[in-house]
Specification:
single chain; 171 residues; alpha+beta; EC 2.3.1.178; diaminobutyrate acetyltransferase activity; L-2,4-diaminobutyric acid acetyltransferase; GNAT_dom; transferase
Length: 171
Amino acid sequence: MTAAQADLQIDRPRVADGAALWRIARDSKVLDLNSSYSYLLWCRDFAATSAVARDERGEPVGFVTGYVRPDRPDTLLVWQVAVDEAYRGRRLAAALLDGLAARTVAERGLTTLETTISPDNTASQRLFTSFAERHGARLEREVLFDTGLFPDGPHEPEVLHRIGPLPAGAR
């Protein structure tokens, strides 16, 4: 953790954090915003595979949500990563991702991390590329959902980023 992160705590989200996670996602203006209800459910049902950063008052200022893929129990799929605008530039997203990977690998023996990223989301591409580099893991990319699969009009393809195997340092 850097000095700029020293005043922050990273732990599991609680149901009471759902509203703040929804606001952070909404204010990012980049993420697909889910209903506020889904963030409450996420904090209840997927807290073990998600992480939240808290400021000195205990308020959420960033999060990573994820889940273990049912058909690949060695794989954590990262769903969303967001940091409150006031806390950007501190490498907080990287610290959240590193912390979540270390925790889920230790608790569940995971070996692979996956996420999907739209081609125009360069910040997320940099985040996951640097994660793979920090951990000496291979990064593979492939189109997961092409534009024609989305029923709600033109949509960029979602590119799957698969990182693994995760090394012992992340485990």
